[in-house]
Amino acid sequence: MEVLVDAQSVMQRFEDLLACACGGPFEIDLSASEAHCSECSRRYRFADGVFAPVVDEPERAEGHDVQLDEERCRDRQAKFYDAGIAVSLSSGVEASKIRKALSSQPFDRVIEIGCGTGRFTVDLARRANRVVAVDRSVGSLQVCRGKLQEAGLADRVLLVHSDVLQLPVKPRAFDLALMAQVLQHLPSASLRSQALESIAQTLEPGGRFILSAYEWRRIHPYLIHKEGFHRGGIYYRRFTRDELRALLSEQFDVVSIESCLGKLLLAQVSR
Fold first, then answer.
1. Are 156 and 125 in contact (CB under 8 A)?
2. What is the DSSP string of 198-237?
3. Please, where are the H alpha helices in 105-204?
4. Do residues 198 and 116 lie in contact, with contact meaning Cβ atoms separated by under 8 Å?
């Protein structure tokens, strides 16, 4: 059954989890469905089902052009993405393993980085009290929103248009984070490290983080590239198990890393 929710009720439900990306506190105006940072004056608005910054001129941070190209590509692909991912055997194995990991322990407050069209968002919303689902693609967020409405779960999820380095949430606000097939698309080593640090800061002590990323093996040079651009212009990088472990160990205690048919790595870590 489709359930529509109004902006004020969603804002009120998630108010205690939100803070400006600069670290400053929000002053939230529920009547206008807006949030205003008392320190940096940055504004956010909840409109069309998405919580997004009100930006006069976008910041040109490291990797801006590459990430902007990806955002535009994701917007174009949003309506067709699910059909493409459905025929990927390794992604099917990955999804099965992620859902098994999610069922192994309870969780209450979740942040999903790179939620896309909602491949896992509906599952998270069925189990968690509150989910903050973040993506750079507005087109993908709108597809995700439609799935949540159809499932009657829209009131449990705050959809956020944001970069992983600009998350408008409070530190230590979540007990679970999920990031599926996102890390490989960050176009530099420093951005990947910063992204994991940003996610670590959102988790309470002992919080869990589940992550998947492209896998690289020695046989691959004869078949595929370790780093490059997909046909649509989206950057990618593949990781060996040791590379991913070393990267995650900067911020987390690594519990396990396993392969999904030699194409994807699935890691479970704790804060």
1. yes
2. HHHHHEEEEEEEEEEEEB--TTGGGTS-SEEE-TTS-EEE
3. 121-127, 138-151, 189-202
4. no
Candidates 219, 138, 263, 118; CA nearest to 178 is 118
Q: Which of 129, 99, 133, 132 lies closest to 117, judged by CA?
A: 133
Residue 162: closest CA among 5, 18, 30: 18
Amino acid at 51: F
The DSSP symbol for 254 reads E
Nearest Cα residue to 165 out of 142, 180, 183: 183
Position 3 scores a pLDDT of 46
Give the whole-angstrom CA distance, residue 97 versus residue 103.
Answer: 10
Q: What are 67's two structure tokens?
A: 């990430």
C-beta of residue 270 within 8 angstroms of C-beta of residue 176: no
Picking from 257, 184, 263, the residue whose alpha carbon sits closest to that of residue 219 is 263
In Å, how far from its chain's centre is CA 43?
Answer: 21
The pLDDT tens digits of the residues spanning 185-216 come to 999 999 999 999 999 999 999 999 999 999 99
Q: What is the pLDDT along the chain (271 residues), one digit of tens a residue?
A: 444 567 888 889 999 999 999 999 999 998 889 999 999 989 999 998 999 999 765 555 666 778 878 888 888 888 878 888 877 999 999 999 999 999 998 999 999 999 999 999 999 999 999 999 999 999 999 999 999 999 999 999 999 999 999 999 999 999 999 999 999 999 999 999 999 999 999 999 999 999 999 999 877 666 688 999 987 789 999 999 999 999 999 999 999 999 999 999 999 999 9
Residues 6+ apart with CB under 8 A from 133: 111, 112, 115, 118, 121, 124, 141, 144, 157, 158, 159, 160
Q: DSSP secondary-structure letter at 5?
A: -
